[in-house]
Amino acid sequence: MSDNNAGIDTFPYNTHTARQLAPPKFSNVTEIRGLVKLVRSIAWSCDGSRAATAGEYKDIHVWDNTLHIKSAKPLPASSNPSPHSNHVTSVSWSPTDPNILLSADKTFSHGSVIAVWDLTSPSQPIATFKTPGDVISLSWHPSGHHFAAVYPKGLHDVVDFYRFSPSSIPSASSSPSPPAGKWEKRTDIVLGGSSPGIGSEEINSLRFNNSGQLVCAVSNDGSIGAWLYPLELLEGENMEAPVELEKVESIAVEDTIEDQAGTAGGAASEAVVEKETDVDMANGEETGEAPSATFIPEETAKEGPQEAEGVAAEAEPEERVAGDETASKDDVEMTENTPHSSKQPTPSRPPSPAVPPSADIPETATPPAPIPAPKATHLTRVAHTTPYAASLLSLSFDPLGRWFAVGGQDALLSLIDTRDWICEKNWDVCSSAIRHTAFSSDGEFIAVGGDDLFIYILSTHASQVVSKIPIPATLNCLVWHPTKNILAWCHSDKKGAPLWYVVQQEV
């Protein structure tokens, strides 16, 4: 759209003049020089007193509000080794603490490292976390005590959540210092992967809403989803309790013991019947009665002489056992005094008393299996809609909580009401994919950019294009100052000196 047609599809009653405000005008672009590596990400501190830039090959710098290279300090300080091993692609300041900064790198093959920095001691990060995939997006919770990281894992995108766990022991130092505690990864909740509501789609952008009650994401299938986010760790009925697992295992062990006892009892009773039969056969020889002949089934005899001989051979021990009573008693005594051998005949003696099953438990029972850790609970999805046919790549929230903006591959920017999820406004000023959107601190403007060679600053009330800024390459980052209408950005052009840029509204 040309500048002459910038007023088309606007709402005159919502213009700055109609609202008795001065027409907005932005100054010329200011180049920030001094870096030697390409800038990939920019972030402002919550009080606006500092800015952070991240670049290629471990480069992180913190700038004061003068934005002069002499004031820029590298992280880590004092020439200490960096926790990152490659390009740092994301930086993000805490929304409540101007000294806490997040950074994440992209190592292409070994996953990423997320570092949490406390600028009161910049020599090394206060916490580091490894992820199996390159971090796509970092997002802070409004409380500043939680953040989320999105990274690919196999065919799915996964979201890990982290929280600050305060220490129960107060710090003994009287000097001003950050609250005692540590950052830790949450293992009680999960989002993404094969969880319901995401499936195999990619999570291209994720943000917490202004209240922190919801975590929202846009996906490759053109959908927008929202899930409830619990601040406290989920315990008890919301997770698989180890006690229940112990009960299930104990019940299974008891059933196995009862089955073993029943099998042993049945085998003992069969042995008693066999031994009584042997004694009767021996008594029959003493009285002169002829013992019964060995019986071979007709089917076995028809199968072949070898199998029939085998059956007869199995029956021979019974004939040998049917001797006189004195011989059988001698066999019993020899069996007791000599080692057991499979070739010795089975003695004919009264059955021994049954051993109680409890006596065999220590010998046969296997050690209990280790109790598995409770599985993470999938976040509860409370809203889902698919307003786009193309992939959605960007998501941002209005600081005043009125709207959220989404943009994607179809170059269409939409402003959606946060209460009813109804699209209120659309812009088609871009000609290529929208990858970055950002609201100004007062909610008057929204900046948009991506693969297009322009950055557009739009009025959220009048829907008109306020400014159109040319850029030489695709956009890497776009972010507003937290208290002033100052916009910073960087692009992917590697020609010339590495630069990042700032433009501000003139008063």
From TrEMBL:
GO terms for cellular component: THO complex part of transcription export complex. Pfam families: WD40. SUPFAM superfamilies: WD40 repeat-like (SSF50978). Residues 318-332 have a biased composition (Basic and acidic residues). Residues 347-356 have a biased composition (Pro residues). Residues 283-378 are annotated as: Disordered. One of its GO terms (biological process) is mRNA export from nucleus. InterPro entries: Tex1/THOC3 (IPR040132), WD40/YVTN_repeat-like_dom_sf (IPR015943), WD40_repeat_dom_sf (IPR036322), WD40_rpt (IPR001680). Belongs to the THOC3 family. This is Anaphase-promoting complex subunit 4 WD40 domain-containing protein.
